[in-house]
Write a structure and sequence with these properties.
The protein is mainly alpha-helical. The protein has two domains: about 10-50; about 55-85. It is about 80% helix and about 0% strand. It has three helices and no strands. The protein has helices at about 10-25, 30-50, 55-85. The radius of gyration is 26 Å and the shape is elongated. It starts with 11 loop residues before the first helix and ends with a helix.
Length: about 90
């Protein structure tokens, strides 16, 4: 896969830790760093989407419905318990 080259500077401690992980996993530093960057970008995109005002509005719209369903479910549960106790 063709791509961009990025140069990074690691301190000795981080480089040694990365080297140890790579040896344990049989991977190259480049492969591991690319995987970590992909996960980071994915997480950041998700965090941005979850912080969107549209999602917050949707949550507010659904939370009342969820509370109503939970209350109805608890009422049914209590009714069943009462019926069981009476029989």
């Amino acid at each position: 896969m063709a791509g961009k080259t990025v140069t990074i500077v690691l301190d000795d401690e981080l480089d040694a830790a990365l080297e140890e992980i790579c040896l344990e996993q049989g991977r190259t530093k480049g492969d591991l760093i690319v995987e970590l960057l992909r996960k980071f970008v994915e997480d950041e995109r998700l965090r941005f989407e979850l912080n969107s005002s549209e999602l917050a509005e949707l949550y507010q719209a659904l939370v009342n419905e969820d509370v109503t369903l939970a209350e109805e479910g608890m009422a049914d549960y209590h009714r069943m318990l009462k019926e069981t106790d009476e029989s």
